[in-house]
Structure formats: C-alpha cells, structure tokens
C-alpha cells in the first residue's frame, strides 16, 4: 500500500540572527537542554517525515556540525546568500527528488512549538487537501511579524510583511507564526513564480499564499491554541523570555507527574532530564543534560546537576555535579563537587568541601570533610579522614589509589598514587602514604613530635603567652601535689594510643580508640 502522504520537513536556519549580536549562529543558542534548532527538530520528529532538510547559511559549518550530532538523518542544504525565505525553501526542494506529498516548513527560531501543534497543522492541511496552510496566532503585540489578511468571508487572502503593510493591515493582530504545510507539487510551482518586488527585495515564502489564492487554489489558516508556542527569538532579551516560558512549562509538567518543586521560579530543568515520583527539588537548582533524579530523592537547594544520575532516596545539597552517579540513599554536600565518573554506591557519603573525580566510592563508605579524591577505588563501609588528598598526578601521568573495605584512614593523609590500603587497615593522622598498607595494618608515616618544655617562658618572657604558660605550670605543680596522694595510670602503651589518636582525631568522637565513624 502506498503511503498516503510523503512528508518532507524543511527547517529554515540560514539567517544570521543579527540582533543576537553573537558569533554563534542564532539557531545554535541553547535553551534548557537543546538548541533553538534542536527544539524545532524535536517538535517535528513525531511527523516521522520521510526526509528532513535544514537550510544552512550563516555559520553553516557550525550548524552542520551540530546537526550531525542531534539529527544525523537530516540533510543540510547550503543557501550561500540569504535571498529570502521563499528562496531558501526553493533551494531546499531542489535538493530532494521531486514528488507529491506534504512539505512542512518551520522557521528555525520557534523553540516553544509543540509537536502536538505541528501535528494538528499537518493533519488539518492533509484532511482539507489544501494547497497551503499557515499556522497563525492572535498575539498581543504583532510588531515585526507578517499579518494574516483575510477577506470579507474570513478566508485567507494573503500574508503581508509588516514593512510592506498599510495602516489597516498593521492593525491586524493575527500573525504568521512561520510554520506551514504545503502540497509539494503546488508549492514548487508557486516558488517558481515568486518576485522580489517588496521592501526587502527578497523572495518571500509568504507570497506563495497570495499566488495560490489568486490561482483559485485552496489555502487555509490553522490557528494555534496558545500563541506562546509561536513566539520567535530575535535577540537575547527574547531568548531569556522564552527560557522562562519553557521553564514554567517543563516545571508544571513535572509537578503534575508527582515531583515536588519547592520554588518553581528558581528551578531550571532541561527538557532532556527525567525525574521520578516524589523527588523533591529545592530552590535555586539547575538540572541539565542527561540528568536523572530517582524516586524520593532530595535535590537542592543551590544544586547544579549536569548529566548526573541521582538514585532513589539520595540527597544532594548545595553542590555541583557533572557526569556523576549518586547511588540510592547516598548523601552529597553541602558544598561538594562531583566531577566526571565520580560514582557513589548505595548509602555512600560525600560531605562538605569534598571534590571527587573518576572514583568509585563503595556502599556505606564516607568521605565527610575537606578532601580531594581523584582516580581511586574505595571499598565498602570505609571512612576517609578529613582533609586528605588522593595525590593522583605526578605532573605527567595520573595514577590510581585503592582503599579497601572497612578501612579507617586518618585525618590529613596524602595517598601518593599508585598506592593501596588493604581491607580493615588504618592509617595515622598526618601520614603521607607512599607505600601500600596491608590489610589490617596501621600505616604511620610522619615525623615524631618533640616538645621543648618551658620554651615560651624562657624565650618569650613578658608576653601574655609566657604569663599564661607560667600560670598553667604553677597550677600543674599544685595538681601534682594532690595526685601524689594515690591516682593510677590508664592502661595502654604510649605508641598504640598515639597511633590510634591519629585516627580518632578526625572524628572528634570520644567513645574510644576504635571509633572512627564520623558524626
Ligand atoms: C518571517 C515571515 C513572517 C513571520 C515570521 C515569523 C517571511 C517573508 N516572513 O519573517 O511573515 O511572521 O517569519 O517569525 O517569511 N531564513 C533563511 N534564509 C533566508 C531568510 C530567512 O534560512 O534567506 C530563515 C531564518 O534563519 C529564520 C527564518 O528563515 O530561521 C525566518 O527568517 P526571518 O528573517 O527571521 O523572517 P522574519 O522577518 O522574521
Ligand atoms: Ca524572525
């Protein structure tokens, strides 16, 4: 069975977008997860067109490069000189085999256009067997746009550009959205007859409507339900306005699926992001790219997640993450930076002022404070002491560190990679670990402390410090007299308690030498 309607989509994207004042072609400006062009292509995607042609001109190489990433099936066609929208469509059709069917033309700068609206336009056009159908909208301010001029019977007579319009036509608030469906054969024919007899000396695609109408062909207007969808983008002020409108649309859709947004006005979610039910997004949060937030997870306030997967019931607070994975029930922040391939397993913790890159942190393991972890594998239920650095870079190459499971590393450790700390091992505070620490061992690598008794009283006489030292020494003398009456010394050897202290210092806990759990 032959396909009833061969469909060709033509996107017009050759213009410079002068008023953007940018080295980036207008259609490549980003808007919540896609470029303007990307939004238009995705609105057209459900048409399942047999071919898609994108007319490129200004910044052609950049636009072609972008297309090869986001729409490799689309055919870029070069319009070397921008001689008008009619000229652009003529060039596009010259590049595809002649044939019947429907040609859908979309300006490249209408990013809020929804697939449903393009679909309704095309269906109406095909069902009416019209020669051409234009998407129109009634707008509060039609300045700069083409006006829909209807006859006494309400039928489309012509589309007139503002600069070619008379005063009566300018008063019309029904505008051409720049989105059309055409019968392919009649469009080709009319494009051959376009003149450049207008204020800009260009071939106007819009003149096709007047030409077809004069030839007695059926032309139609399809009015958009919501004029916001037809808003174009000509400068950065309009781009910002479109971004706010799209934000509201995206946010509303997520709230309706069961996601809580505590402050939608400061929550910016790319159209490419996915959130599960009962996720809670707190204020000042940006979710970008391929980010996914699991059920019941809490993200925010003040969080940016780019291409990051957050598992169910995890929490990420005041943090920045790029290309990271946060496991179920894991916690991140406040003030953490997760870089690409930072992977936190279930219930792992990355705390405050911690940066993690290319590292697997095992289930239940914690990196709570002031630490850099790069290029490492950390086992399960391990605790990394505060203010540690995984020294992964020798100035030329990056090296890997392995920390086992149930390990307890001391505060202020340097792990000079490549190095390995075994399962259940401990390391002392202030250690520079350059050699492997076997499973169950205590690694100590630091100079022994020396106290020079009485130094301040002797060498800083007359200072407040010396006076305080003197008072303390006097009080100690008095205490010693009391103790001499029969106190005993606590058990444990001096070297053990020193090393263990190295570990317990990180945690500020006082419950015993073996307790290194944080908080
Ligand atoms: C066009 C319509 C106008 C409509 C408005 C909606 C015409 C003559 N006018 O006006 O009725 O209200 O869109 O936004 O069509 N382009 C090319 N090659 C060219 C010229 C333009 O590819 O030679 C592309 C531009 O990159 C842009 C689109 O076509 O994506 C529209 O061009 P633009 O110059 O913005 O047309 P408008 O003056 O806005
Ligand atoms: Ca425009």
Automatic annotation (TrEMBL):
It is an enzyme of class 2 (transferase). The keyword Cell wall biogenesis/degradation applies. Residues 470-519 are annotated as: Disordered. Its EC number is 2.7.7.23, 2.3.1.157. Its cofactor is Mg(2+). Residues 1-236 are annotated as: Pyrophosphorylase. InterPro entries: Bifunctional_GlmU, GlmU-like, GlmU_C_LbH, MobA-like_NTP_Trfase, Nucleotide-diphossugar_trans, Trimer_LpxA-like_sf. It catalyses: N-acetyl-alpha-D-glucosamine 1-phosphate + UTP + H(+) = UDP-N-acetyl-alpha-D-glucosamine + diphosphate; alpha-D-glucosamine 1-phosphate + acetyl-CoA = N-acetyl-alpha-D-glucosamine 1-phosphate + CoA + H(+). Acetyl-CoA binds at residues 386, 392-393, 429, 446. Pathway: Nucleotide-sugar biosynthesis; UDP-N-acetyl-alpha-D-glucosamine biosynthesis; N-acetyl-alpha-D-glucosamine 1-phosphate from alpha-D-glucosamine 6-phosphate (route II): step 2/2; Nucleotide-sugar biosynthesis; UDP-N-acetyl-alpha-D-glucosamine biosynthesis; UDP-N-acetyl-alpha-D-glucosamine from N-acetyl-alpha-D-glucosamine 1-phosphate: step 1/1; Bacterial outer membrane biogenesis; LPS lipid A biosynthesis. One of its GO terms (biological process) is cell morphogenesis. UDP-N-acetyl-alpha-D-glucosamine binds at residues 12-15, 26, 79, 84-85, 146, 161, 176, 234, 339, 357, 372, 383. The keyword Transmembrane helix does not apply. Mg(2+) binds at residues 109, 234. The active site is at residue 369. Residues 258-519 are annotated as: N-acetyltransferase. Keywords: Acyltransferase, Cell shape, Cell wall biogenesis/degradation, Cytoplasm, Magnesium, Metal-binding, Multifunctional enzyme, Nucleotidyltransferase, Peptidoglycan synthesis, Repeat, Transferase. In the N-terminal section; belongs to the N-acetylglucosamine-1-phosphate uridyltransferase family. In the C-terminal section; belongs to the transferase hexapeptide repeat family. Homotrimer. Catalyzes the last two sequential reactions in the de novo biosynthetic pathway for UDP-N-acetylglucosamine (UDP-GlcNAc). The C-terminal domain catalyzes the transfer of acetyl group from acetyl coenzyme A to glucosamine-1-phosphate (GlcN-1-P) to produce N-acetylglucosamine-1-phosphate (GlcNAc-1-P), which is converted into UDP-GlcNAc by the transfer of uridine 5-monophosphate (from uridine 5-triphosphate), a reaction catalyzed by the N-terminal domain. This is Bifunctional protein GlmU. It comes from Micromonospora taraxaci. The lineage of its organism: Bacteria, Bacillati, Actinomycetota, Actinomycetes, Micromonosporales.
């Amino acid at each position: 069975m032959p396909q009833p309607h061969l469909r060709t989509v033509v996107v017009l994207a050759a213009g410079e977008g002068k008023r953007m004042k940018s080295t980036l072609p207008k259609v490549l400006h980003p808007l919540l997860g896609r470029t303007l062009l990307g939004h238009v292509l995705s609105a057209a995607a459900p048409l399942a067109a047999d071919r898609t042609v994108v007319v490129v001109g200004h910044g052609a190489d950049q636009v072609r490069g972008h297309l090869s990433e986001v729409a490799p099936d689309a055919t870029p066609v070069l319009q070397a000189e921008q001689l008008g929208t009619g000229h652009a469509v003529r060039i596009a059709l010259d590049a595809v085999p002649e044939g019947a069917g429907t040609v859908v033309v979309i300006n490249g700068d209408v990013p809020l256009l929804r697939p449903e609206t393009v679909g309704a336009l095309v269906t109406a056009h095909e069902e009416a067997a019209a020669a051409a159908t234009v998407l129109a909208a009634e707008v509060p301010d039609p300045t700069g746009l083409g006006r829909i001029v209807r006859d006494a019977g309400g039928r489309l007579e012509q589309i007139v550009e503002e600069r070619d319009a008379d005063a009566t036509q300018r008063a019309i608030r029904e505008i051409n959205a720049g989105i059309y469906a055409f019968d392919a054969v009649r469009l080709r024919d009319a494009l051959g007859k376009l003149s450049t007899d207008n204020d800009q000396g260009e071939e106007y695609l819009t003149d096709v409507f007047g030409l077809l109408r004069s030839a007695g062909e059926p032309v139609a207007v399809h009015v958009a339900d919501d004029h916001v969808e037809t808003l174009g983008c000509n400068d950065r002020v309009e781009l910002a306005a479109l971004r706010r409108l799209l934000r509201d649309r995206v946010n509303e859709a997520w709230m309706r699926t069961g996601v809580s947004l505590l402050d939608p006005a400061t929550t910016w979610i790319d159209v490419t992001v996915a959130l599960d039910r009962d996720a809670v997004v707190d204020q000042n949060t940006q979710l970008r790219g391929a980010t996914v937030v699991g059920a019941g997870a809490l993200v925010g306030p003040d969080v940016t997640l780019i291409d990051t997967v957050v598992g169910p019931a995890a929490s990420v607070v005041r943090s920045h993450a790029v290309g990271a994975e946060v496991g179920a029930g894991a916690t991140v922040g406040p003030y953490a930076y997760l870089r690409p391939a930072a992977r936190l397993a279930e219930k792992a913790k990355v705390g405050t002022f911690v940066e993690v890159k290319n590292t697997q942190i095992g289930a239940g393991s914690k990196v709570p404070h002031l630490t850099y972890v790069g290029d490492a594998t950390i086992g399960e239920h391990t605790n990394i002491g505060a203010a540690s650095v995984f020294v992964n870079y020798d100035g030329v190459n990056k090296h890997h560190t392995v920390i086992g499971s149930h390990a307890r590393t001391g505060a202020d450790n340097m792990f000079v990679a490549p190095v390995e700390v075994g399962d259940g091992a401990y390391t002392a505070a202030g250690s520079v670990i350059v050699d492997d620490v076997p499973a169950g061992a205590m690694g100590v690598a630091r100079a022994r402390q020396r106290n020079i008794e009485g130094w301040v009283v002797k060498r800083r006489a007359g200072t407040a410090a010396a006076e305080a030292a003197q008072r303390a020494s006097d009080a100690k003398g008095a205490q010693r007299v009391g103790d001499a009456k029969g106190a005993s010394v606590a058990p444990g050897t001096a070297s053990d308690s020193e090393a263990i202290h190295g570990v317990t210092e990180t945690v500020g806990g006082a419950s015993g030498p073996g307790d290194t759990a944080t908080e």
